[in-house]
Amino acid sequence: xxxxxxxxxxxxxxxxxxxxxxxxxxxxxxxxxxxxxxxxxxxxxxxxxxxxxxxxxxxxxxxxxxxxxxxxxxxxxxxxxxxxxxxxxxxxxxxxxxxxxxxxxxxxxxxxxxxxxxxxxxxxxxxxxxxxxxxxxxxxxxxxxxxxxxxxxxxxxxxxxxxxxxxxxxxxxxxxxxxxxxxxxxxxxxxxxxxxxxxxxxxxxxxxxxxxxxxxxxxxxxxxxxxxxxxxxxxxxxxxxxxxxxxxxxxxxxxxxxxxxxxxxxxxxxxxxxxxxxxxxxxxxxxxxxxxxxxxxxxxxxxxxxxxxx
Length: 310
Known about the structure:
8 strands, Homocysteine S-methyltransferase, methyltransferase, 8-stranded parallel beta barrel, alpha/beta, HCY_dom, zinc, metal-binding
């Protein structure tokens, strides 16, 4: 099994002291390309509305419980709510009441998956995605505005008692700050995962190091992660600085393509599995707090199992 360690010197949150944790993979790309589901605006949360969708989600999460059991690790499952924020929900016909119901239902579904697993070390995570496109930074945003925006979803998650709020595929420091403030306002631990381009910088051009340092100064999350980028894209960001001890989660893409190239693809690039595992293994020594490993776009249970050596 690949070495994944946490220690008192590098772990910022008591939650991670229970780790390491297996987490899930590329939910949306798996359901879309492998199972034929239509996902309006790349949103998976509408699947909660009917039995077929819920059954597909149950089967999806159960795979990762099996991987965690085989690896002898904890299980951290994230709600299918990456698009379940007000702007994206409005595009597919969800008003505020329906959106709150969807976020709450997502927590209940994931909690049932955790219970089915029979594992002792499990965490239920409320997943926040970006207000805009996860591959494009767009216009510069205001951190306070982002806090108000993400508070809508955070309140739903807090009401359902999630263990953690996780902002994934953040493209700017400002939105990351906003999610942290939103989570803190409802009293829930929070992690922030940035995505990076092939040069290790955020889509807005910010070096990953600068984003981490800025958030720690202005609105520190419990820990940081990187998602939706191949390990070879993360590598250029790592300069050996102490800030790397704050990176506790990695959920890589299967493909080495750029975000722009992936956005234009009509077929799924499942990547080179050997390259994925070897390149992540090559980063482990630079990430002493790494405690959560899963996948992102293009990955499925096969990729995550390989990353855990099972």
